[in-house]
């Protein structure tokens, strides 16, 4: 059979297989390096495969990125190469408007220059922001960039108090609105990886800073802010749909704790839980209703619960439930009336009740030590139910298995 050749004359199937094997080898090498680093730091016991932020790129990806990045930066230097010096830098343009403002303020104001400046300066500022990537570990704050420092005191004259109706007072907020927010929207759509804890933390931190520093433009009523939040939510939905896969194996296959299927199953569960935790970093920025839809409806009920139902009904399941409940915001359950949790958590509550029933059933006919362990595990399940305000289920489980100190468990939630 004649092999299919690509445009470079290479056997297409063989090249793709070699590339796949190279990626696998590089991925395993990264995991081995991280595992060695955890062993040296004494953190092996508290780590689960799948929680690592796989931010370390392959050598091929790094080379490709650096080449493309250098090309873009070199091309950006040519943008204004055919423009006169007086009109190709922000400072030279700004100085002309400052002279106009000082000498003919009335005409300056009547010409609505304050409203035009953000659009006029937009290309120059975007050019300076072309390499700005807040997801990188070392990235300068945009407020420390030359364009920001140059415009910080625009329109302010020494010894004069700023006028309330002076449009130039809002120059920087307007630039943040029309330049920085669209830039962030593009980065959220095309660069941000919701599975990366470090990238998510940096984006959340930056957005909180913008909300605090520029409340007049970074708010729920602003269309640029709305576009950014929509891009973030759509990117999260895409990650849930495309990046999360929890395999369903028969229990007999998962009995071998060293087998490849078991290790893959565990890795995929912890990756799903990691994404849930990353999404919940947006608490306080994205509404609780949307967060509950993304985390509970789309992730917990569709993926994580299936994995829990396939896990051992012992320490493994308890540790996973503990980690899951730790991720959930306490304010979801703080002011609930009655004894029921939020409706979206009902499936998880039923699983916890099932876990308590299974734990008790498996302890029948066992030694006294194993029965005491099972009883402590059932108490732990009751505490989990109390934390998420599923008091109806917690009380039912306690009554079913004769747990007398339920009030202490509920108070200790």
What is the gist of this entry?
The protein has 17 helices and no strands. With 413 residues, it is mainly alpha-helical.
Share of helical residues: 55-70%
Portion in beta strands? under 5%
Radius of gyration: 28 Å
Low-confidence stretches: none
Measured distance between first and last alpha carbons: 68 Å
The number of helical runs is 17
Q: What is the structural class?
A: mainly alpha
Label the overall shape: flat
Mean pLDDT: 85
How would you characterize the largest beta sheet?
A: none
Order of helices and strands: HHHHHHHHHHHHHHHHH
**How many distinct beta strands?**
0
Structure characterization notes:
The protein is an all-alpha fold. The protein is built from 17 helices and no strands. The protein is flat and about 95 Å long. It starts with 11 loop residues before the first helix and ends with a helix.
Question: Notable features of this structure?
Answer:
flat
Itemize the secondary structure elements and their pairings:
Layout (H helix, E strand, L loop, with lengths): L11 H30 L17 H18 L13 H14 L1 H6 L2 H16 L17 H6 L19 H20 L6 H17 L9 H21 L7 H4 L5 H20 L8 H22 L5 H13 L18 H18 L4 H20 L3 H10 L5 H6 L2
Helix pairs in contact: 5-7, 7-9, 9-12, 11-12, 11-13, 13-15, 14-15, 15-16
């Amino acid at each position: 059979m004649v092999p299919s050749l690509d445009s470079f004359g290479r056997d297409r199937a063989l090249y793709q297989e070699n590339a796949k094997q190279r990626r696998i080898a590089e991925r395993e090498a990264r995991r081995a390096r991280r595992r060695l680093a955890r062993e040296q730091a004494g953190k092996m016991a508290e780590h689960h495969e799948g929680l690592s932020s796989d931010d370390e790129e392959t050598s091929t990806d790094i080379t490709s990125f650096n080449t493309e990045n250098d090309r873009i930066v070199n091309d950006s230097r040519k943008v204004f190469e055919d423009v006169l010096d007086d009109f190709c830098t922000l400072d030279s343009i700004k100085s002309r408007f400052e002279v106009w403002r000082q000498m003919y303020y009335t005409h300056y104001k009547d010409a609505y220059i304050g409203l035009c400046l953000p659009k006029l300066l937009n290309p120059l500022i975007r050019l300076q922001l072309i390499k700005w990537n807040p997801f990188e570990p070392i990235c300068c704050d945009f407020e420390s960039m030359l364009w920001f420092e140059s415009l910080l005191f625009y329109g302010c004259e020494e010894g004069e108090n700023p006028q309330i109706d002076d449009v130039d007072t809002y120059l920087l907020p307007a630039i943040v609105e029309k330049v920085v927010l669209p830039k962030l929207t593009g980065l959220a759509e095309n660069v941000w990886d919701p599975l990366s804890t470090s990238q998510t933390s940096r984006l959340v931190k930056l957005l909180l800073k913008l909300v605090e520093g520029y409340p007049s433009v970074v708010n729920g009523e602003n269309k640029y802010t709305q576009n950014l939040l929509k891009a973030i939510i759509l990117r999260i939905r895409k990650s849930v749909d495309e990046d999360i896969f929890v395999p369903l194996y028969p229990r007999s296959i998962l009995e071998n704790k060293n087998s490849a299927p078991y290790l893959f199953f565990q890795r995929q569960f912890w990756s799903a839980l990691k994404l849930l935790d990353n999404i919940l970093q947006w608490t306080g920025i994205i509404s609780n209703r949307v967060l509950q839809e993304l985390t509970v409806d789309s992730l917990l009920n569709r993926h994580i619960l299936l994995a829990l139902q396939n896990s051992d009904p012992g320490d493994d399941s308890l540790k996973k439930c503990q980690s899951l409940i730790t991720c959930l915001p306490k304010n979801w359950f703080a002011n609930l009336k009655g004894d029921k949790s939020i409706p979206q958590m009902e499936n998880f509550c039923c699983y916890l009740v099932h876990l308590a029933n299974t734990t008790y059933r498996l302890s029948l006919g066992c030694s006294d030590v194993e029965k005491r362990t099972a009883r402590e595990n059932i108490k732990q399940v009751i505490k989990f139910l109390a934390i998420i305000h599923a008091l109806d289920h917690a009380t039912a489980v306690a009554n079913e298995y004769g747990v007398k100190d339920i009030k202490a468990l509920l108070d200790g939630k």
